[in-house]
Write a structure and sequence with these properties.
Layout (H helix, E strand, L loop, with lengths): L1 E5 L3 H12 L3 E6 L10 H4 L3 E4 L6 H10 L3 E4 L5 H13 L5 E3 L5 H17 L6 E8 L9 H13 L5 E8 L5 E3 L7 E8 L6 E7 L4 E7 L4 H14 L5 E2 L1 H4 L3
Parallel strand pairs: 1-2, 1-3, 3-4, 4-5, 5-12, 6-9, 7-9
Antiparallel strand pairs: 6-10, 7-8, 10-11
């Protein structure tokens, strides 16, 4: 399979290693200084492009990739609120293909399934109050993380007593804490911590007067995310539309 990479930071380089090891060919690498390559024959020859950049440029990367007629896998977050419906419509009605996930880790996919299952159980026990904390490296721009939002949506789908998630506290790299976890009875606070080079930790806590029930996913490195992205690209090569981890891993 021919793969194009959009974004050549730490994730892009890790994806490259795994893709090549799995027998794929990297035909184009686009980064900040060669945006014109979206129009190159090399890029257009790709079966799938894999994009990991940032919220400010992701949407434009999507449009350029679609214009080139290339299918896309993306792990960029922060664009959904403004452009989500437009992009989904392009995929469901406009013939474009995007496999998007806030997190490509197999472990997170399993964790997400466990999260939903546990929330279904806890729906019967209103004495437990639920909250979430996510921790990421200092370079991550959006907070809460896209993965945290996806997990929070999984909670909302299974906890009848909760109607929305809200931002909790934000602990900045310098240790400064802003915001609050105080919220309405029907709300779930999602707090964020930015420190060091943490790949990603997501912790969901159910607290009662008697005890706590806590589940955590703690990523050790970027390898799990990169492998998941390549697996998604392999899946996307033979599928169309707006795709996600529920299509790739059906638990």
């Amino acid at each position: 399979m021919k793969i194009a990479l959009i974004g050549y930071g730490k994730m892009g380089k890790e994806i490259e290693k795994i893709a090549v090891a799995r027998g794929h060919e990297i035909v184009s690498i686009i980064d900040i200084d060669n945006q014109q390559d979206f129009e190159s024959d090399a890029f257009k020859s790709a079966d799938v492009a894999i994009e990991f950049t940032n919220p400010m440029v992701a949407y434009n990367n999507y449009m350029k990739t679609f214009a080139a007629g290339v299918k896309l896998v993306s792990g960029s977050t922060g664009w959904l609120e403004e452009h989500g419906e437009e992009v989904k419509k392009l995929c469901t009605e406009g013939g474009k293909t995007l496999f998007w996930s806030s997190n490509f880790s197999l472990g997170v996919a399993i964790f997400s399934a466990v999260n939903k299952y546990l929330a279904g159980i806890m729906n019967n026990f209103p004495g437990y109050e639920v909250s979430m904390v996510e921790t990421h490296h200092v370079h991550k721009l959006d907070a809460p993380s896209g993965t945290a939002i996806t997990l929070a949506e999984g909670l909302l789908d299974n906890l009848a007593r909760k109607s929305k998630w809200v931002k909790g506290t934000l602990t900045a790299p310098d240790g400064t804490v802003s915001g609050t976890t105080t919220c309405g009875a029907d709300e779930i606070p999602v707090s964020s911590i930015r420190e060091g080079e943490v790949p990603g930790i997501h912790t969901i806590t159910y607290e009662s007067d008697a005890d706590n029930i806590i589940i955590t996913h703690d990523a050790k490195n970027r390898k799990g995310f990169a492998l998941g992205a390549v697996l998604a690209a392999e899946y996307t090569a033979s599928h169309e539309g707006f795709l996600g981890m529920n299509d790739l891993f059906q638990f």
